């Protein structure tokens, strides 16, 4: 029997009623927060997942009654601030998610609380700036500007100013901006015949993502090289905006709608034309697969995109099962410490990256399946930096224990966070940080 009170049904999620007036009714929100917090207080299974639950339980334990009714409702926001919508409590721990009659969806309740705060204007300028990834990238990735921004991000005095003005912690190592965007330099090839498999379309459209486009375009070029080696025709999405995940985490649901209106029509056309759509950042794939369908239920274009969206390694391993992935690897990878990001885990696709890397002879993959604590913009912020490093400590330790040749994660931001955490923790490690797509390209000898 399952953990869900004898139910054998899989957990389900309800559409998010964010366009209804009741969604923003503060009194109704307060009652629902109190109801769910009381259930969480009585269970406490999620205490080790993130800082939201310890914060809640401390508020309860230190309250006047030792129950949720002894917590000042004004303090509920302290719990909301600690939730970065990783979804792991819903997917891996909570026994009361739908179809259980208690109907607990903690992350989407936190999203509702964030949306109410955003609509009231109770967000910092810093948060609006950090979640405007397209605007930041378009400015910072201009060649001369990129060099200046990167130099400033490495300069101690400049980082003190950045912390005082925007609240970006001066200790956080920030990803560089690339002087040449991926979309401008990508050389895709589409001349090969399309070989559809039983499980996958035989041609690919790449949704490059803000991070690949502006920060680490090399990851995108690695994906292109692997596709070319496997003679898979590939194109870029004609036009592209942020997937919307940063705006979702801020509670800016109208911002999510605006970005959806840019992305979905063209991606839906590609999906209906038989393309598999690949996004090399797990959060972006998750947004299209799961979050947008819940925000806009009944939208046929979104449904088409969700059905065509793949994590790259999900696509590769399915091609392999159809006998369509080349395994003519030239280079062993040695020891790889591989971290599975939260937004990969909650896609419910299994450990496809690990499976793919283990196809390479002379490769030993040690897998760490735990939240690293960075979460997009959350771990960048001054008030959360120390907590993000604390959450990540078990991951830093486990990743270093194998004395790996490579540190790798599907989430490039998490990989940077892990590398910093290992080094700041005093562990001398010669391992190179490399994205799994980079490793696969090296294995092919490309």
From TrEMBL:
Keywords: 4Fe-4S, Iron, Iron-sulfur, Metal-binding, Repeat. One of its GO terms (molecular function) is metal ion binding. Residues 204-289, 336-412 form the Cysteine-rich domain. This is Fe-S oxidoreductase.
